[in-house]
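User: Structure tokens for this complex, please. No commentary.
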Amino acid sequence: MPTKPNIKLVKTPMTAAADIKHTPPAGAWIEVGRLDDIPRLGARVVCAPDGDIAVFRAADDHVFALRDQCPHRGGPLSQGIVHGHKVTCPLHNWNIDLQSGTALAPDVGCAGVYSTRVENGVVFLYTAPLPSADCSGSSE
Amino acid sequence: MKEKLVLIGNGMAGMRTIEELLALAPDLYDITVFGAEAQANYNRILLSPVLAGEKTIDEIMLNDEHWYMDRGIVLYLNSEVTGIDRNNRRVTTADGVSAEYDRLLIATGSQPFILPVPGHDLPGVIGFRDIHDVDTMIDAAQHYRHAVVIGGGLLGLEAANGLLRQGMKVTVVHIGDILMERQLDSAAAKLLRKSLTERGIEFVMGAETAEIVGKKRVQGVRFKDGREISADLVVMAVGIRPNVALAKSAGLYCERGVVVNDTMQTYDPRVYAVGECVQHRKQTYGLVAPLFEMAKTCANHLAELGWARYAGSLTSTRLKVTGIDMFSAGDFTGDETSDEIVLQDAARGVYKKIVIKDHKIRGAVLYGDTVDGAWYFQLMREQSPIEDIRDRLLFGQGHLGDSGHGANAVAAMADSAEICGCNGVCKGTIVQAITQKKLFTLEEVRAHTKASSSCGSCTGLVEQLLAMTLGGDYSAAPQNKPMCPCTHFTHDEVRTAIRERELTSIPAVMQALEWTTPNGCASCRPALNYYLISTWPHAARDDYQSRYINERAHANIQKDGSYSVIPRMWGGVTTPDELRTIADVVDKYKIPTVKLTGGQRIDMLGVQKETLPMVWADLNKGGLVSGHAYGKALRTVKTCVGQEWCRFGVRDSTQMGITLEKMTWGSWMPHKFKMAVSGCPRNCAEATIKDFGVVAVESGWELHVGGNGGVKVRVTDLLCKVASEEEVLEYCGAFIQLYREEARYLDRTAPWIERVGLSYVKQRIVEDADGRKALHARFLDSQTLAQSDPWAERASHGVDKHEFVPLKRLA
Ligand SMILES: Cc1cc2nc3c(=O)[nH]c(=O)nc-3n(C[C@H](O)[C@H](O)[C@H](O)COP(=O)(O)OP(=O)(O)OC[C@H]3O[C@@H](n4cnc5c(N)ncnc54)[C@H](O)[C@@H]3O)c2cc1C
Ligand code: HEM
Ligand code: SF4
Ligand code: SF4
Ligand code: FES
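Assistant:
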């Protein structure tokens, strides 16, 4: 049984979003479920109109969200094996960094990143992806 | 303040250590590098192709000056370090530059040994070690005619070949009668000499140099027996001497090389040394594979991880002369206690010799046909017993009916030829990656090209491409290869620890065996989970998050993220009701594709994950259960119609198949496991390419093991013949349990049997009756826990509900 975490705020990527000069695409913070609904070292899917979003929970209860599409050939990252702050794609084993969405070397590519936060055991997701500079360039 | 790391010697071993260190700990040190040469770091072993005009200097650079700049490394070129002050932890160069260190790394390599004969210091007498030497040789080729190479070893012959290609008339002088006597026996050396002579190189054998003659410049070489030949250029390639003068002058303990322990530390704990300048366990090395292993170990300690140990290396050699194939490894002469197998075909210019002792390969020499070099070297490194394949050993891996390592002549393959079928990588792509991205090891090729990273059956081919492209055996992985980068223990060591230290959970294993990552990776976690549940079926709990998605979803993920559903059909037999159930399910859930599999099952493809539990519930109602077509588990038992219908059938193969499947379904294995039963030797069920195949004969049942289809088909080995049905079941259960307990994760039965030897399996299963019964009993015991339909658990008992429903649906 996963014990209930007493962490209030696990991750605040808000500052990252606020720093960006141009206006981010419109989105909203929404509640997606309880932290306990996501297995540790696992992921769940949030179905959004423009495509699925994978919400991951690391062993240390950090929560991350990525577009559920591997930069390689679109594999569903939510189905991969989570280790550290990384997920291994189930289709051809690319490793994707959960924080930045970038593929780990030597692979190159990037999955869209979404902001998340956890308050009192409830997971919130910002429905527009972070404008991520990393996604355009290479990860090297 | 960061600690300061100073490297003396900007060569292959030193810089490899820095690269390994940066990969482990990018920000730990302020790094300063001193190199006596004018260039940044280049691939020294490719100087031979540069000399032969096949490559340019630019093509052999490993790290150019920008590389150092980008990483904030201070690089001093043309700077020979002349003093180390260990009290004040400071090094000084000839030009008076000095730098302080907290840790010092000495990698000064070695230098060519110049025979101390009169005239050795005349202009035109050089060694073959660096870019400067190569420039001198290329320059000489433009102005002079006669080159003499003293020394008929690897380096001398590569120099001779290069000078010949530069247009010089080349004579090789060798003191003994056998060329490359440290790598070749006399038969192979003769073939080599013959083909080099045909190219135009002259040889003076058995000649000891007495003097280099000449006034302003070298003019000739005189031998002890009075003979003399003319020369405008003399290349001394009689051996190398580790560069220890600097270390010695600093008071570090040196013998032939700088003496280091298994962590690459010298007698001064702040000072490490790697490369050709070191002496480790009384050995010095002159090839890069061992230096790279040293580099890995040293970097591990510099990065303060502190667990790696270097235990010495076995080496193999290849000659980098285009068009000449030569491979040598280990002890190729043998003694009274060893014996050898030899194949000699003078007309084809092929010679192969393998030295064997106690059923294991001690060494090998190959000339003319070296495709199996990597394979012999692997058998040698792993000390695999070879008695069962001895009769076919010399013909190569291609003749083994091997488990799919492939043994085509890669050199002859077109660039467009596909090497890795799983990931669609062709030869040209791999060779390009090796040269352009400067790759040296199998792991690097895997990471950069994905070749050999899935089923691994092309590993042998990729290793050969590496060897072919780079000249030596770079994949000379340490004998004990860690199971993944998270640990330094091998699969076998991990298994032993789990059993002997009674570890029953993944965190316990990771803690006991000092895992370097907090929760492993996608490669070790599934392996650990398997080892735990197979070793401790009662005590260990299955770790759901350490399973591949197929085993979590109990269905096969497809490329579009949908899943396929294959229900069990015992022995391949079905009924109208089952077929109706399937037809109804396909209609109801609008499943796009229905297909018959090669394993006699029905596959429904394109089911969305959320629908899986409903599909299963309906199938369950019709009596259909999971076929485990997605698991590292018992897959299918294929049968022929057998005695009941077939006019040739001698036994009821169909019923035997059903009984076997009922006994074995649900068991987790190191890899997928397939079985088949044929009703007579016509073998319509193809039982001889299965992991466990049963063929009925008049007097009983033949049991075959270790077969597989796939990229490279491997035919089974005959295990034995038994009389009764009960025996078939007992031998089958025992065989599976032995495989489950002893194979490495993701090894199918074929590579496992090739590694441990069929004799071993026979001894455990056929000869040792008590052992067999015990294995079978352990198998049945673990089956009591395994045989529960995972589909029913999820469809009707609410197991893992979260797997199949989205966390939330946004409008
Ligand atoms: C022509 C040739 C072909 C070869 N072919 C093969 C092959 O096919 N396969 C194989 O495995 N191996 C081969 N080798 C051997 C391989 O190149 C060496 O084993 C390897 O380069 C040794 O690495 P190292 O770092 O120990 O020494 P090096 O690469 O020699 O590096 C030592 C560096 O330290 C510098 N240095 C020395 N003293 C000082 C000082 N006091 N201050 C500053 N700098 C200093 C030197 O100038 C040099 O640059 C070949 C070597 C040669 C020369
Ligand atoms: C070695 C690497 C192999 C891999 C990665 C692999 C992978 C796969 C995959 C992904 C499927 C599709 C299953 C599904 O979703 O329904 C499949 C099907 C199948 N595999 Fe393999 N397989 C391998 C080797 C083999 C071998 C050696 C055999 C034969 C002995 C084999 C026989 C089959 C059969 C018969 C099917 C069903 C195909 C069909 O008729 O639809 N596979 N395999
Ligand atoms: S089912 Fe097997 S053979 Fe067919 S494409 Fe997939 S992996 Fe290749
Ligand atoms: S293997 Fe023999 S018994 Fe079985 S179908 Fe073929 S011929 Fe008939
Ligand atoms: S789709 Fe993710 S690795 Fe290929």
